[in-house]
Specification:
InterPro entries: QdtA_cupin_dom, RmlC-like_jellyroll, RmlC_Cupin_sf. By secondary structure, this protein is mainly beta. It has one helix at 127-136; strands at 9-12, 15-18, 21-24, 37-42, 50-55, 60-66, 69-74, 79-84, 89-93, 98-102, 109-114, 123-124.
């Protein structure tokens, strides 16, 4: 297993335009996994942080449906800040990448499409534990 934030991708969400507006569609041909869970974050208070964890096996696709927010991603040696602010583009986060969501604009909505249902044992919620987990995986 290779964990590297440089391999993270911003994917385009297919859109259909007509005079009544734009329709964006996320199906299994958009994300490289079977969709098993969808949820969204909204009304995030100014200055609040979300995330602050990694997943052992789950992949996620994050989209700013409205407004904007930053995703801080980390691996064992690097970190990168990615601003999401376009409902037609999403960030694909693979397993074993640390993520923190912050700098939510007023009215921001973050849609999360996930490869698995919620499983508490899939979460690594302490960064020191995350680094230990990575070292045990020989990544």
């Amino acid at each position: 297993m290779i964990i590297n934030i440089e391999d993270l991708e911003i994917l385009d969400v297919p859109k259909i335009h007509d005079p009544r507006g734009t329709l964006a569609v996320i199906e299994n041909d958009v994300v490289p996994f079977e969709i098993k869970r969808v949820y969204y974050l909204f009304d995030v208070p100014s200055g609040s942080h979300r995330g602050g964890h990694a997943h052992k096996g789950l992949s996620q696709f994050l989209i700013a449906l409205s407004g904007s927010f930053d995703v801080l991603v980390k691996d064992a040696s690097k970190e990168k800040r990615i601003t999401l602010n376009n409902p037609a583009k999403g960030l694909l986060i693979t397993p074993c990448i640390w993520r923190e969501l912050e700098n939510f604009s007023s009215g921001a909505v973050c849609l999360v499409v996930a490869s698995e249902v919620y499983k508490e044992e899939d979460y690594i919620s302490d960064f020191t534990d995350y680094l230990l987990y990575l070292s045990e995986q020989k990544v």
